Amino acid sequence: RRLSPPGAPRLALWGCCWLEMEPSGLMRVGILCLLVVPLCGLSPESESGERTWRFRRGSELAQAGCDLRDGGFDLAKVLGNNTHKCVFDDLSGSVSLSWIGDSTGVILVLTTFQVPLVIMSFGQSKLYRSEDYGKTFKDITDLINNTFIRTEFGMAIGPENSGKVILTGDRSGLYHGGKIFRSDDFAKNFILTEIPFHPLTQIVYHPQNSDFLLSLSTEGSLWVSKNFGAKWKEIHKNVCLAKWGSGTTIFFTTYLNGSCSKYFQL
């Protein structure tokens, strides 16, 4: 993923995660992030709140693992200086990692564990946030009231640098509506919002306006929001698929025979 602004030297990110079973039966989750600077000789510099780029001196290049005399950089040294391991000791069966915006350094990690029961399911989620490209993480699960977040929906991240995040909470049982957690400040705070339907798929942002949202319900209805999920309106029933078009145009497929088909594709 590109981490730098357009026209600036690019950073590349490689990552992996692993699961280890502890003797106690708990699952140990780890994430290993490798941050690499492919183009040596340039480094970010802030002037009056604006990011610029400058050439580094020879001593700085050598320390960073770059040696322009060799026509490149010391990959092993760069990896060694920019590799950080984070271990999350949670009761977790899956791990999701998402970047929030470009060049922000903000990463969210969601760990989830779920046990399906006869009528409802039991689940546990933990949410972690990093502001330094994954070097350190802070547990922010209390911001979502320790709610179980649906694994299949994960984290819906807004386009570009909107800083918007939507988490869909699980609501098994006889509830008439669902609940989501919304953030517009790069996951520093979340607002719990009750919604009049149960989402079937992950909520979809408009590519140019992150306040406009689309969602399909488990009953097959298409819902739209124009204020970042604060209020929702049902606009059509019996919908199989939906997507944003240009402007405020919405394309969707519907069915007349009472069931969706794999042939209804946009």
Report on this structure.
This protein has 266 residues and is mainly β. It contains two helices and 21 strands. The strands form seven sheets. It has a four-stranded antiparallel β-sheet, with no helix packed on it. The chain has a four-stranded antiparallel β-sheet with strand order 12-13-14-15, with no helix packed on it. It has a four-stranded antiparallel β-sheet with strand order 16-17-18-19, with no helix packed on it. It is globular. The model is unreliable at 1-14, 16-21, 31-39 and 51-55 (pLDDT under 50).
Main pleated sheet: 4 strands, antiparallel
Q: Which oligomeric state applies? A: single chain
Shape annotation: globular
Based on secondary structure, the structural category is mainly beta
As a percent range, the share of helical residues equals: under 10%
Q: In terms of per-residue confidence, which ranges show pLDDT below 50 for 5 or more consecutive residues?
A: 1-14, 16-21, 31-39, 51-55
- Biggest sheet: strand arrangement: 8-9-10-11
One letter per element, helices H and strands E, the order comes to EEEEHEEHEEEEEEEEEEEEEEE
How many whole angstroms does the radius of gyration measure? 22 Å
Q: Distance between termini?
A: 26 Å
Strand content: 35-45%
Number of helices: 2
Mean pLDDT: 75
Q: How many beta strands in the DSSP annotation?
A: 21
